[in-house]
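Hey, quick one: can you model this chain's 3D structure?
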Amino acid sequence: MTTATRTAVVGTPAAPSVARRVLALARTEALLLTRNRIALYMAVAMPVCLIGGLHQMLKAQRGRLPGGDLHSSLVLSLFLTVLVFVVYYNLTAAYVARRNDLVLKRLRTGELTDPEILGGTALPAVLLALLQMVAITVCAAALFGLPAPHNPVLVLLGLLLAVAVLVPMAALSSAFTKTVETSGITTLPVMMLTIFGSGLLVPLAVMPGQVALVARLLPVTPALALLRTGWLGSDGGHHPVGWWLYLAGALAWAALAGWAARRWFRWEPRR
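Sure thing. Here's the predicted structure for all 271 residues.
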């Protein structure tokens, strides 16, 4: 190798790593999130505003909650609210906004790969949701003496798999959403089915048999059932299912949602 060649090689800056590229995009997305008042309200204020209503709803079902643990059930319901509004709804709107502003199209002309673009855009929402859930847990433990989860590993697995399903579902929903303003309409069916069919807000045990069966087959239910089983020691169903079946179901839904998002995600504005 000649001196000139060695100099050229040494002088060439190393390409940024995947982590650095994703974090750089995530920082930009976080800055945009702080400037969006509606997104911030949905991410921060909405779960707080729902505490009273969720408390009354769960109080009415107290006798049928596993172990009668109202506070643990309230915390899990707030986790569900955070996941639905902060991760799924806000991220759907973010993908639509970046697509319509041609940001995604420009990013694809650079070094970022498609998964890095989608992941970097999702990272601030996911981290915000996780921080909110940590804050909810700490406050509930300090105020109500919240009992410790039965199996923290299952709790963590349930949360991670719920995110792994909701992020690609947000990407998929954005493909059918023309504008940010209509994202509230296109995401509503998934949000309602997830909230009322997950088994966290309305335990599977209080649902009729056929309804409970359909609820178990919804995309996010296996991950949230894993979360509930890890925290309360029961999935709240008439016929409890082994946690490993929930794990298999959650992994299958995450893989299917990822494939569907990759297949139908739109990188340019809808015409």
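One thing worth noting: Confidence is low (pLDDT under 50) at residues 1-15.
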